[in-house]
């Protein structure tokens, strides 16, 4: 029986990353339902839209099932599961391939990661896929690696309430050294806020950041793995509780 994939992203329906991965999955016999935002929604994290109704539209120019939603990546997962698939759980939810990296602190902001988290909340085996850099990613070769990993995940499964944040190094397939299971690293972006002045003299600010691997990265992290030529697989838990901190706080004896 063909395995069913719910494919989403945060870059929109026109992104080369999701189009290339979708083609690779279809060519290898997967039943793929694609639901994406109708525009770039990078940085939208795990937000759901509650303040207005959402519209979902089928794109007729694509074969198979391809839909766009005027909302966030998490909205796409929600509508993809409950509306397009009528509540029938896919075998796996795949978010990506993103156009840029989702390493370290990126996971708190990433719509790609947010979509995978939403899938996990719905009880769907979920993964997020990204390159280590937005500079000339080879999505075809990354899709080949993604296909192999997806097949293994479908065969072996994942721990309960855990999804995977997977990052590919931006090197050729033959140069990749293998896979490393990693922990979330720290951010090594060079933060930038640019100031702009409109023709009517109104001031605007644009938040951004420049990718940088110049700083030393800790061993065992996602940053270090891709920097050394490995595919990074970071397991992310839905439970954000710091259990060690519970013990510390209990000893502090809060009272009112």
How would you sum up this structure, described in words?
With 256 residues, this protein is of the alpha/beta class. The chain has one domain: Stationary-phase Survival Protein Sure Homolog, Chain: A (3-Layer(aba) Sandwich). The chain has seven helices and eleven strands. The strands form two sheets. It has a nine-stranded mixed beta sheet with strand order 3-4-2-1-5-6-7-11-8, with helices on both faces. Helix 2 runs parallel beside helix 4.
Content-based structural category: alpha/beta
Percentage beta strand: 25-35%
Residue stretches low in confidence (pLDDT < 50, at least 5 long) are none
Helix content: 25-40%
| Estimated radius of gyration | 19 Å
Layout of strands and helices, then pairs:
Elements: E1 4-8, H1 16-27, E2 31-37, E3 56-58, E4 65-69, H2 73-84, E5 92-95, H3 106-109, H4 111-121, E6 126-131, H5 139-156, E7 162-168, E8 178-181, E9 190-197, E10 203-210, H6 222-227, E11 230-237, H7 243-252
Parallel strand pairs: 1-2, 1-5, 2-4, 5-6, 6-7, 8-11
Antiparallel strand pairs: 3-4, 7-11, 9-10
Helix pairs in contact: 1-5, 2-4
Question: Which descriptors apply to this entry?
Answer:
256 residues; alpha/beta; Stationary-phase Survival Protein Sure Homolog, Chain: A; nine-stranded mixed β-sheet; two-stranded antiparallel ribbon; 11 strands; 29% helix; 25% strand
Summarize the structure in short.
The chain is α/β, with parallel strands linked by helices. Helix content is 29%, strand content 25%. The protein starts with a strand and ends with a helix.
């Amino acid at each position: 029986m063909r395995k069913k994939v719910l494919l989403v992203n945060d870059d929109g329906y026109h992104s080369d990353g999701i189009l290339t991965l979708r083609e690779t999955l279809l060519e290898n016999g997967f039943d793929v339902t694609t639901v994406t935002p109708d525009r770039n929604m990078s940085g939208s994290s795990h937000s759901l839209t509650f303040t207005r109704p959402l519209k979902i539209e089928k794109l007729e120019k694509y074969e198979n099932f391809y839909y766009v939603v005027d909302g966030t990546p998490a909205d796409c997962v929600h509508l993809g599961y409950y509306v397009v698939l009528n509540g029938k759980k896919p075998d796996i939810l795949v978010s990506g391939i993103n156009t840029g990296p989702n390493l370290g602190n990126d996971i708190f902001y990433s719509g790609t990661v947010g979509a995978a988290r939403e899938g996990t909340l719905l009880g769907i085996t979920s993964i997020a896929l990204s390159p280590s850099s937005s500079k000339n990613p080879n999505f075809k070769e990354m899709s080949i690696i993604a296909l192999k990993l997806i097949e293994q995940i479908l065969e072996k499964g994942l721990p309960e309430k855990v999804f995977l944040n997977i990052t590919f190094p931006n090197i050729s397939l033959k140069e990749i050294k293998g896979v490393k299971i990693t922990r979330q690293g720290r951010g090594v972006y060079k933060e930038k806020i640019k100031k702009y002045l409109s023709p009517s003299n109104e001031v605007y600010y644009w938040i951004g950041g420049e990718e940088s691997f110049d700083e030393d990265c800790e061993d065992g992290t996602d940053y270090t793995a891709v920097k050394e030529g490995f595919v990074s697989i970071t397991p992310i838990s839905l439970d954000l509780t710091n259990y060690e901190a519970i013990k510390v706080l209990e000893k502090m004896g809060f009272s009112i």
